[in-house]
TrEMBL record:
UniProt KW Cell cycle keyword: no
Gene3D superfamilies: Peptidase S8/S53 domain
Active site: 521, 558, 734
TM segment ranges: 28-52, 67-89, 101-119, 125-146, 167-187, 193-213, 225-245, 251-269, 281-298, 313-339, 351-369
A Pfam family the protein falls into: Peptidase_S8
Disordered: region residues: 1-22, 549-568
Keyword Disulfide bond: no
Peptidase S8/S53 domain ranges (all copies): 512-756
Entry keyword set: Hydrolase, Membrane, Protease, Serine protease, Transmembrane, Transmembrane helix
Name recorded for this polypeptide: Peptidase S8/S53 domain-containing protein
Similarity-based family: Belongs to the peptidase S8 family.
Amino acid sequence: MEIGPRPPAGPPAPPPATGPDRPGPWPVVAAALVGGWTVLVTVLGQVVGWAVDQAMLVAGLDRAVPVWPLVALGTVLLVGAPTLALALLPRSPAIRATGRAWLAGALVLGALTALRAVPPVHQEAYLAALTGTAALLAVVLGGLRARRAASAIGAAPGGVRRAPETLLAVAAGAALLLPWAVLGALGGALETLLAGLAAAALGVLAGVLLDAAFWARFDAGPARLVLVGGLVAGVVLLLLAAGAGHSGAQLPALFLLPPLGFALAALRAAAARAGRPVGPVPARWLVGLGVLGPLAFADPDELTVLLATTRDVPFWVAVATGAAFAVAVLVAVGYGVLLARPRAGAPSRRVAAVVATALLAAVALGYVVPGQPGLHGDRLLVVLREQADLTGIPAGAPGRAGRDARAAEVYRRLVATADRTQAQLRRELTRLRLHPTPYYLLNAIETDGGPAVRAWLSGRPEVARVLVSQRLRPLPAVAPPARGTLPAPSGPAWNISLIGADRVWSELGVTGSGVVVGASDSGVDGGHPALAAGFRGGDDSWYDPWAHTRTPNDQGGHGTHTAGSAVGREGIGVAPDARWVGCVNLDRNLGSPARYLDCLQFMLAPFPFGGDPFTDGRPARAPDVLTNSWGCPPIEGCDAGALRPATAALAAAGILVVAAAGNTGPYCGSVADPPAPYPDVLTVGAVDRARQLTRFSSRGPATGGAAKPDLVAPGADVLSAFPGGGYATLAGTSMATPQVAGVVALMWSANPALVGDLERTGRILRETATPAGVRPDDPEAPRCGGDADLVGAGVVDAYAAVRAARAG
């Protein structure tokens, strides 16, 4: 950086208000201990609060709303008491100023942290609350400190906003923002606007906390100002950072803001040497731009351990945080060396302006070229009050002919109801350029919009409720696809033998031919040797509403594994000669109500690539049984009844929906995420090799008191297909579910008259199931009720079920 010649001597810097400040050793030691304690309590509280949120999410439990208000209260009490003592007891004005600054920061942190009681799914509401609270705190604290700040600054000449110190603060803030612009992605328009306003409000608040009166206490010399004042300011900024963002989004700020205290101290030293007063403007710019990155370019919903297993959002946020932290340290050291040296010249305004302009241009260019330009906010799912009347549909002939007739009538009624009831609302949403996408399986419309649009839609008489339909933000680089590394089994896998499927093949000669299984998941590797021959083919057997791919593929591997357990060959699938069709409803392990609807709707009436589900659906091509190893929790936008009309319509059409109970055991009542709790869904839990209920398998009773799961199947260490031609071992109710779907395929292959007869099929499965055990050391089992809420009817028995189906 170019340093201009020293200017002629100007007016001297204002002296400290109370004269020389030379505290004894013990107050300094006390201040150091209080500072260390403040850092420890603050960081520990933020990490623990986020960890509790993630633990509740992984366990499938309701979000603990009081967690963050309790963290806020605990932090204020634990930090406030020693900092209050530091602000009142020592004689040293500098140490008292330190105590006052840290106490104010603790109170600010308490107020901002309590805002996280707002659910993360309502990010716009949280950002609006953050903006308002930070602005209010700035006004209140600014009013309380106005006189002291005025006496410290003195009469400020004009041009402070255009001073080189301000321009250097803008340059440093832009440098901090650059990694986020390149690696992150923005949300919706309103979300981005509110993130900018929140960052600006936090910047203003930082300027109030680190006002001229604060810096005046450390103005005995440049070295002391930077080293001591910068350290004290860093703790203040740590407290502010801990409240700057929803749960997870504040963690990057804990790394980024504290080093900026030294940079601000160096800017203060440079201004004092030049005889220029420096107000709160540099702090506003530097802190505001510093927090804008994590607030605007990262969705807190996506900073979750659910996405931490691959190079997904948590990985890229960590990379952006590391890069921005390195920038913050370089800025702190560089400004300290260049601006606070005893013989350093005054920074050149022209050079500072050029550097700031260049870095702001780099941010814009980085966002547009290597970044992910555009808006990628969540959408809304508008559920209409009127749903199609599916009563009185004739049963028709037994078997597939009757099933096809019922499916056609269900499709006709659903489409007619949606067309009639959605027409006006679709026109209005189109006129407002909100890009509506209609659905018929659930009479609903997905649309753009934030809280204002949601409130407007919720007030309409034809609307029952409005859900948030989550959408993941794009990544700077696609994670490498999953690959299987294990070889194929030498014979039937252990789980295949445990349920007797291999005996069905060898003794009964039934392998699932003539039956089609629909798999909705992360996708299917259509080229896998265990699955390639089973793909039904045609132009209506694959649908990818995320990436609109034309042929079966799978990046994550979960869908290939589950499809393999249902219909895979090489000894891994229950019904190896059944055919399959596929749909992608999970993107990077997360979905949304709309994407789940996309696939369920496709399974009722498949349509060709690029076709219109409303006019091009082919119910006669619907698969017979669906395997669904997924659930839609509140974090994805679903409520308890979100998909209820959809599964009811599929049941009315004679399509059997098999769904995973979930992996949120051992807690009672954990069969909660749609569609597992629904009565017309066959819900599957998991057992191990010893036929004992796994600890992770979700338990009933389901919502409303219904007994769930219906059945259990092997779900611990199940070997199945994985992308790339290899195999992998996974555990979960996801692995158990396709085995039950495969047993249904065997039953319907053995007796085609059972196709579409969901009641008799379910009865046979339950009556032929074998007992399942519960571990004696299972901590929750005694409180969950009887076996019906733990293992349902028992372990599915393919051999007995197929024999009963054939006899029927």
